[in-house]
């Protein structure tokens, strides 16, 4: 016979399930904050704002962007990990902020388990772009120049641990060159310095650097993709340029603090799916040379697998960068 105590505990558990379900159905009741781990204007910021606007439409509540720059995104992720797990604070991340960072900054106040994946929202393509007056005219000349001047070329990125930093590391490793990698608090200030000639170039995603290349403010060198980008038809792929080992295809995903109810995760996931399928997001992504996930790539489980895969991938690549 079930004791009174057990019956009461069971009743409380069932009541909590109904309460959680009701809470998820009512969600959201007020605006949601989406933390972006970098300064405004970079790849993650542009993608976040594009997706957030349409997610807000789907949810019936606005999503407010909060830029929290610093330490390659780990400052923002620390804040996100401490937020109430109620769905009202989420974060956008990438392979840098949510995978490589654990090798680069091994004493972080959070782990991969500190977050509940919501879903992937974008796939991105890495580009190396140079100041417009850089003496090398193509990748072959650039590599020759770098090898003749070891350590003298400087390439900007959005901070150690960012996806742009990973583009830099992948590039210099594939090219076998010694270049100085200069960290900024976001992709936008790095690009500004490349345009102004303060640095030799940037490692960036097409989403934030394509326009500057098309306006001839900087000169595209190579894209780490298997196909040319529609927005940059004259920019050669790494294979075409003679460096097929350079691969820089990344992702952006949404995360919530650990403990966020599954029903709320499902609501946010559905809103993200709806957002990336809208004409507005498709049009903006096309302009940014960014693509939405395939239909079978939207689930939280797929994003979790990407994180697990990339934690190990960058643990091997970045072991020497660990602090």
How would you describe this protein?
This protein has 12 helices and 9 strands. About 3% of the residues have low confidence. The protein folds into 2 domains: 190 residues, D-Maltodextrin-Binding Protein, domain 2 (3-Layer(aba) Sandwich), CATH 3.40.190.150; 125 residues, Periplasmic binding protein-like II (D-Maltodextrin-Binding Protein, domain 2, 3-Layer(aba) Sandwich), CATH 3.40.190.10. It has 323 residues and is α/β, with parallel strands linked by helices. Strands 1, 2, 3, 4, 5, 6, 7, 8 and 9 form a 9-stranded mixed beta sheet that branches. Helix 1 packs parallel to helix 10 and helix 2 packs antiparallel against helix 11. Helix 6 links the parallel strand 5 and strand 6. 46% of the residues lie in helices and 19% in strands.
Topology:
Layout: H1 4-26, E1 32-36, H2 43-59, E2 63-67, H3 74-82, E3 89-94, H4 95-104, E4 115-131, H5 139-148, E5 154-157, H6 163-175, E6 180-183, H7 187-196, E7 201-205, H8 206-214, E8 218-223, H9 238-241, E9 249-257, H10 262-276, H11 279-287, H12 300-317
Parallel strand pairs: 1-2, 1-3, 5-6, 5-7
Antiparallel strand pairs: 3-9, 4-7, 4-8, 4-9
Give a nutshell description of this structure.
Keywords: Signal. The protein has 323 residues and is an alpha/beta fold.
